[in-house]
Amino acid sequence: MSDSQIKDLVGVIARALADFPDQIVVNEIIGQQTTVIELRAAKEDLGKIIGKEGRNAHALRTIVNAAATKLHKRAVLEILD
Q1: Are strands 25-30 and 74-80 parallel, antiparallel or unpaired?
Q2: Which three-class secondary structure state does DSSP give residue 11?
Q3: Which residues are within 8 A (CB) of 66 and not within 5 positions of it... i.e. 6 or more apart?
Q4: For residue 81, what pLDDT band results from cuts at 50, 70 and 90?
Q5: Contact between residue 34 and residue 75 where contact means Cβ atoms under 8 Å apart
Q6: Where would a tag sit more exposed on the chain, N or C end, judged by fewer CB atoms within 10 A?
Q7: How many CB atoms lie within 10 A of CB 24?
Q8: Which tens digits make up the pLDDT trace of 22-78?
């Protein structure tokens, strides 16, 4: 699994949760030690992506962290509005 596959994974999961999947945008900023995955969604979908009490966001971050750990890297998921 590469960095871009982590980005694709976040996109697939976010699109599955969203009512407007065509408005999901996932960007990847690769640094020396940390990769930042930025997730943008329609305002109407932010609640679904974040989830009740942040459960969906926490689960997404856990998946990103697990995939990055497998690559011996560090990745951070930022959900932007």
Answers
A1: unpaired
A2: helix
A3: none
A4: confident
A5: yes
A6: C
A7: 21
A8: 999 999 999 888 999 999 999 999 999 999 999 999 999 999 999 999 989 999 999
